[in-house]
Design goal:
The protein is built from 14 helices and 2 strands, in the order E-E-H-H-H-H-H-H-H-H-H-H-H-H-H-H. With 321 residues, it is mainly α. The protein folds into 2 domains: 160 residues, no CATH class; 128 residues, no CATH class. Strands 1-2 form a two-stranded antiparallel sheet. A hairpin with a 2-residue loop joins strand 1 and strand 2.
């Protein structure tokens, strides 16, 4: 295939990408329907933890959408405050701790010392404040503790009138650039943040507008296409999204989308991360940049009820299920 003017030769991992996506979506649909485990006969998928095909369907994203963005005041500054506060830690237990101790979490009543005191006490008790899903680097703002620096960054962003700057942005890429300009926010985190803010009504960009490949996705892309893929990762992700139906059909795979919503760029980016992990076991002979050979997180079936409520502007909430 030719992408961005380069001829790419695919490896066995390329077909695995589509097979993994179909199988992982079947697991999601089975759980959504309330089917009992086991939800898959795939031994790798049954033994290790993988995220959903659709980023917005994952547990943390669902919590963000349901319990953070659309619960509480819809004042634009308050919505942005809640999103950033949640995402700087990306951990449900941290949000719930702050909410339990401080009540309504709001920019109008924000006092850095009160929030910092709660987090300091939790850290001293040995509680984890940050999600292990991906690295959230500390912004260099002079405080002694990482969480204090994130509270300082949160305060700085709201005082800088970030909300109005994002709303004046003419594209997702421009909004990404604004977020990227803040200390401690690199390409990957800025992209995650703009996607999360875009779940709200503050901005309304098409998820097919823009994509940034994170480290895990770059590993997965290299495993699929080799060294010729370096530097054109975003174009490859776009190719995957545009040709998904063709490849599911080619391989005879049934992929049940979110009621007609196909895999978006962010979803295809995430799938490359997951296929990178999956290929460590399924295709150990094919290596990426990191050289990792094991999947760290084991999967333990849990019988928690999963939710499927998405940004209302997508128009699919009456269809999902």
């Amino acid at each position: 295939m030719i992408v961005a003017g380069r001829r790419l030769k695919s490896s066995a991992v390329f077909d695995t990408y589509w097979q993994f996506a179909a199988a992982r979506q079947q697991v999601y649909q089975a759980r959504l329907q309330g089917d009992p485990p086991p939800w898959t006969a795939d031994p790798i998928m049954a033994s290790h933890r993988f995220t959903n095909c659709y980023r917005a369907a994952d547990r943390v994203s669902q919590y963000l959408i349901n319990n953070v963005i659309y619960r509480g005041s819809q004042n634009p500054d308050e919505v942005l405050f809640r999103i950033l506060l949640f995402k700087f830690f990306n951990r449900i237990s941290t949000w719930e701790l702050l909410n339990a101790r401080l009540g309504d979490l709001a920019w109008a009543t924000f006092r850095l010392d009160r929030y910092d005191r709660v987090l300091n006490e939790a850290a001293c008790r040995g509680e984890r404040l940050y999600s292990p899903a991906y690295v959230i680097p500390p912004p260099p703002l002079g405080a002694g503790r990482k969480h204090t620096n994130h509270l300082l960054l949160l305060q700085k962003m709201l005082c800088d009138r970030l909300r109005s700057r994002l709303q004046r942005s003419e594209s997702m890429a421009e909004g990404f650039g604004i977020l990227r300009s803040y200390p401690g926010i690199g390409d990957f985190l800025a992209f995650q943040l703009i996607i999360d803010i875009n779940y709200s009504t503050l901005i309304d960009f098409d998820e097919m507008d823009f994509v940034v490949a994170g480290p895990g996705a770059r590993d997965g892309i290299r495993k699929c296409f080799g060294p010729a893929s370096q530097g054109i990762e975003a174009e490859i992700i776009r190719y995957m999204s545009h040709t998904q139906e063709q490849h599911f059909s080619r391989l005879g795979l049934s992929f049940r989308s979110l009621n007609g919503r196909p895999l978006q760029l962010i979803d295809c980016q995430n799938l490359f991360c997951e296929v990178d992990k999956y290929a460590r076991v399924a295709h150990p002979e094919i290596t990426g940049y990191s050289g990792r050979t094991q999947i760290k997180q084991r999967y333990v079936p849990k019988h928690r009820v999963i939710t499927a409520w998405f940004p209302p502007k997508w128009g699919i909430n009456h269809l999902v299920g």
